[in-house]
Amino acid sequence: MNITLEDVLFITGLLVYGKPVISDTSRDEDAFSSIFGINQTTVSIAKLKEIACGERSEDKKMYVVLLMVITCIVVPSEDGHRCCPSYVQFVKNLDDVNSYAWGAALLSFLYSGMRKYKSRDKKYFDGNAWVLLSFLLFHILKLQQELQIDLTMQPPTPVLFSAMNSLEKIGRDQYSTYVSKVTALLNSGCHGY
Questions:
Q1: What is the helix (H) or strand (E) element at residue 1, kind and residue range?
Q2: From CA 67, how far away is CA 58, in angstroms rounded?
Q3: What is the DSSP letter of 19?
Q4: Which of 69, 118, 139, 163 is most buried per CB count within 10 Å?
Q5: Nearest to 69 by CA among 128, 134, 153, 137
Q6: pTM of the model as a whole
């Protein structure tokens, strides 16, 4: 089983067709200066929040929200969610934001992160783990049953939100219980999915 573009569209609702999210510059050191007036090569989520709270311009607030979505959902990484300047070019023209294939970028980044995780023996992998988990929950019905999760949804709600809400109810206090159930189920070969 592999996650496909169709799965990403179904799970997240993000476009999988459109202009590719490929940087036309290797690194624009002045990107944050051009939209926020700050001279930093990367910006933390905390700094983006600070900018949004102190900003009066609606466009700049929109830049912050979009950069947070890109950094936390499309290309989350183990580096503490630092926003790279190369993402600015995709949000600078607000009219073009919806023309990009954000779902395709998410899938590409997830596959790249899993490959690097496996080959570099890293503790965490880059990519949206919620999408991977939602995919497994949706396609392995026994997993939903064992975890007592109901992914019924009202269209057009993406599966991702249902999965996150259901798993949140399990909570950390049940971690050992569901980890052992999931491990046993996956080790059994998931017969009957």
A1: none
A2: 14
A3: B
A4: 163
A5: 128
A6: 0.79
Residue in 84, 71, 86, 74 with CA at minimum distance from that of residue 25: 86
19 Cβ partners below 8 Å, 6+ apart? Answer: 96, 99, 100, 101
- Each residue's pLDDT tens digit, 49-80: 888 888 678 888 899 999 999 998 898 887 76
Q: What is the 3-state secondary structure (H, E, C) of 37-85?
A: CCCCCCEEHHHHHHHHHHCCCHHHHHHHHHHHHHHHHHCCCCCCCEECH
Per-residue tokens: 102: 């954000």
Q: Are 128 and 158 in contact (CB under 8 A)?
A: no
The pair of three-digit structure tokens given for residue 132, joined into one six-digit string: 């991977």
Q: For the segment 164-184, what is each residue's pLDDT rounded down to a tens digit?
A: 766 666 655 555 565 566 666
The 3-state secondary structure of 84-139 reads CHHHHHHHCCHHHHHHECHHHHHHHHHHHHHHHHHHHCCCCCCCCHHHHHHHHHHH
DSSP state of 24: S
